[in-house]
Amino acid sequence: MAEKTLYSGGYIPKDFQGHYEEIDFDFGDKLTLRLPRLNKESSRELMTFLKARHGQIQNLSVAKIIEAVDKTIKQLLDKEHPLRRLAQQWLPVITGYDEEVIRLGLTRYLKRFEAHQLHRFLSADFADPAVLEGFRPGVSGGYVKAQAMPVSCHIWAGNVPALGLWSFISACLVKSSSIGKVSAAEPLMTGLFARLLAENEPALANAFAVVYWQGGEEETEKTIYGMADVVAAYGNNETVEKIRQKVPITTRFLPYGHKLSLSVIAGEALDHVKIGDTLRRAAKDIVFYDQQGCYSPQVIFVEENDAISLREVGSMLAQQLARDEKRYGRRQLSFGEESSQRQWIGQCEIEMMERDESELFVSREGAWAVFCQKDIGRLGVPGTLNRTISVVSFKNIEELSDFLQKMRKILQTAGLAVPTEKLFAWSEFLANEGISRICGLGEMTLPQAGWHHDGRHSLMDFVQMVDLEYSAEQQGVLYSTTTD
Amino acid sequence: MNQEMESIKKELATFIVQQTATEEEYERLALKIFANQFRCNQPYRRFCQQKGKTLRTVKTWRDIPAVPINAFKETTLSCIDPAEAGAVFMTSGTTTSVRGKHYHPDTEIYDLSMKTFFKQMVMQEFEHIKMGVLFPDESHMPNSSLAHYLEVGAKAFGIGKTNFYIKGEDIDYETLTADLKAAMAADEPFLLLGATYSLARVMDYFEEKKEKFALPKGSRLFDTGGFKSYKQQMTLDEFYDRLSETFGVPRGRCINMYGMTELSTEYYSKSSQEVPAAMYGPHWMRTRFIDPLSGEDVPKGECGVIVHYDLANYNSVIALLTEDMGYEKEDGFVLLGRVEGSEAKGCSLSLEEFMKAVGSDG
Residue A140: exposed, middle, or buried by beta-carbon count in 10 A (0-12, 13-18, 19+)? Predict the structure, then answer.
């Protein structure tokens, strides 16, 4: 048997002299990932250090930061680069996702952070990104500056590989130093990126830390949340709520909790020429990362039409999922996940005991399941992730309202396959119901650069806008040495 | 009840009272009951057909499709017209407001099943015993299968008047203490039966009063239901240690019962010397442990989702898919409680929230 590999991950600022512990994460008999682990004392030291060194990143221009991030991304896109190879080798072991899904997913995702895309991030949040460098003339007189929050804290989830990069790079772009806690479910990628970035731009080497601490360690968490200027928390509502209780009211809190996403397929996308392609894209959203992302669909709404019945759509989607399963196998589920799926299937079966028009398609090994539900009013738990989905028919757009209103607080992405003529009507409707991101079917798991995650400003949340009002400027004139 | 049902009921009664049953005998009766349920129970027939299971394809009792227990909440599982049911037991409905309904034409089979196996597992050498029950009586909980069960037990095996100590939210400690003392004075064995959490409350009460009992030889203690919501969660070892200490009954004579509204038969442990103890069912019951997705039996001794086959469920469905997990041990099985549901790792939504499993050392 091959020997178990030990890899030291995470990132500690280059000149940090304090003491910290380490923790090992074991992934089967193949990999041990060693990470810096904070306790009350080390977290205080590290936070103090980051705050003290914030000037270094603060003095760097955005252009320099973009250059460094871009260089790092290009290295990670290079399939021969040792760290890219390392990521590709170990991410499947760590996360259980199919190798091919990781390879494709990682490339697609990393490309979101190339230089030209980073400019898109900036313009999405700032009309004039130069406000990040200093005071710029404001539209209504006076001047305005985007002042970085000195230290941002990120609590990342591990549902999707490299997920942490989004907020890590966002904070970095606006010159905020970061302390990030990786999830035990994917503790590799952000640390690896941080390490490479620090090598590429020495001025960034003391601007962040990627570490671990045990969730719930009261003293450590209080220290970190108390000293941080922003806390961004990713996870299920329960986790996020627990964190919120520990964040002082004076600290900005960015909760990214539970979300529900959905797809809509119009009749026009179901004619016999287009349907195959439509369902291939619908399946892609389900298959990529086994619906573990907040942007992954759990229900597909299908417009009733003369060409094809709901049952046929469900059956064809099931066939597509079966084909995809052969190419991109689903990750191994835990007993708990399997049981959840069994119970969800049980609920579908119970529903069918009462009604003839419902239909369930399940793979023999339970690798996917499609539940066709004609009556939108009876839609219960739409799915239980891991390639389980409800396909529900509707006649008019308004029929979706009741369901969407019930789910309003957790809605996020809608993947659409609708014709141009209806695109804006759908978008207006969905926006009104609480959807914050609308994309093409098949693209749900890949938000575009500059995405307003959960409808928020990715970058803006890590800065404080400072207004230098006209009155100060005016009065300055009074006291100026050059005054007449 | 139609003729077929009458004939099944008669055959079942004979089956229950016979000492044991061969696999062939079990199979024959199981398939006969299944065939009747398939024919008379439309939702169940639809359920089977959707799984491609029909009278032709179901060849052994293991092929009989197991219905998820939640179905009792959403649909009517009964061969007879539910309006004609002589008894309806309802689930307590802890997680949702909808309560599952289990229809029984009458309680003859239920009672026979209860008495036959209770005699063997709880009464053992005794024909009758002085009893006390820590549960409300049936008149206060008319749809509780447990209240009915305890009432049947008291009537069939109790000596004199059996007291039910729970009135509403209160426990009648006075009568309980008097009964315990009377048993000690008369040196007559006593059987105290109750819900686990009520016994826990009683132990707290006596501890506060600094009162302990030494029940006469032959006495036994019976608990059922687990902890659910009682404030003081303790390990099984702590529970039985304290139980044994409070009442002076060795742990070997503490018996745990596992029952469900959706079943007509109960499982028992033989002792609580070692916990978790193996649970045993009678010869008209079978238990399987399956892989949740494939539905295949897990290898012997490995953890699986529990499927019950209870022939005494002749009116509803004999095969039940639970949300409990367990594993085979000796000739019985260990119950580990509710399956711990999956929790989404990140921000994607997993809508279900399951009760935590009581143990996970499977």
Answer: exposed
Spatial neighbors of A174 by CB under 8 A, at least 6 apart, are: A62, A132, A146, A148, A459, A462, A463
**B321 touching A, CB under 8 A?**
yes
| Selected residue of B49, B322, B347 to mutate for chain A interface (largest A Cβ count, 10 A) | B347
In this structure, the answer to whether residues B28 and B65 fall within a common structural domain is yes
Whether residue B313 is contained in a domain is answered as yes
- Provide the shortest C-alpha distance from residue B277 to chain A (in Å): 23
Work out whether the CA dihedral B299, B301, B304, B310 comes out positive or negative.
positive
Go through the domains of chain A in sequence order and give each one's CATH number. 5-258 (3.40.605.10), 260-440 (3.40.309.10)
| Radius of gyration of chain B, Cα coordinates, nearest whole angstrom | 21
C-alpha B168/C-alpha B140 separation (Å) is 8
Of the candidates A163, A335, A339, which has its C-beta nearest B346's C-beta? A163
Cβ B292–A338 below 8 Å, yes or no? Answer: yes
| B87/B226 same-domain check | no
What is the pLDDT at residue A255? 95
pLDDT at residue A183 in the model = 94
Chain B residue numbers touching A347 (CB-CB < 8 A): 68, 70
Q: Are residues B121 and B255 in the same domain?
A: yes
Same-domain status, B263 and B139: yes
Q: What is the DSSP letter of B317?
A: -
Please indicate whether, in this complex, the C-beta atoms of A339 and B339 are within 8 angstroms of each other. yes
CA dist., res. B220 & res. B125, Å (int): 12
Are A384 and B291 within 8 A, CB to CB?
A: no
Do residues B140 and B276 share a domain?
Answer: yes
Same domain, B250 and B161: yes
The DSSP string of B77-117 is --SS-GGG-SEEEE---SSSS---EEEES-SHHHHHHHHHH
pLDDT of residue B97: 65
Checking if the pLDDT of B346 tops 60, the result is no
Is B63 within the bounds of a domain? yes
The answer for B 17-76 residues in CB contact with A (under 8 A) is 43-44, 46-47, 50-51, 68, 70-71, 74-75
Q: Is B113 found in the same domain as B87?
A: no
Q: Is A351 within 8 Å of B303 when comparing Cβ atoms?
A: no
Which of B75, B291, B352 comes nearest A354 by C-beta? B75
Per-residue pLDDT band for A205 (boundaries 50, 70, 90) equals very high
Residue of A294, A340, A410, A413 best to disrupt the B interface, most CBs of B under 10 A: A340
Q: In chain B, how many domains are there?
A: 2
B185 plus B227 within the same structural domain: yes
Do residues B24 and B31 lie in contact, with contact meaning Cβ atoms separated by under 8 Å?
Answer: no
Contact A186, A158 (CB under 8 A): yes
DSSP A268-294: GGGSTTTHHHHHHHHHHHHHGGGG-ST
B343 assigned to some structural domain: no
Residues of chain B positioned with their CB less than 8 A from the CB of A182: none
Instruction: Indicate if the pLDDT at residue B359 is higher than 60.
Output: no
Please state the ipTM of this predicted complex.
0.81
CATH number at residue B134: 3.40.50
pLDDT-above-70 percentage for chain B: 90
Q: Which domain holds residue B76?
A: 3-97+285-323
Q: Which of B250, B280, B310 is the last residue of a domain?
A: B280
Element (H, E) at A69: helix A62-77
Cis peptide before B299 (omega within 30 of 0): no
User: Does residue B329 lie in a domain region?
Assistant: no
B2 has a pLDDT exceeding 90: no
Range B318-345 burial, b when 16+ CB lie within 10 A, else e: bbbbbbbbbbbeeebbbbbbbbbbbbbb
The 10s digit of each residue's pLDDT in A395-453 is: 999 999 999 998 898 899 999 999 999 999 999 999 999 999 999 999 999 999 999 99
Residue ending a domain, choose from B245, B280, B315: B280
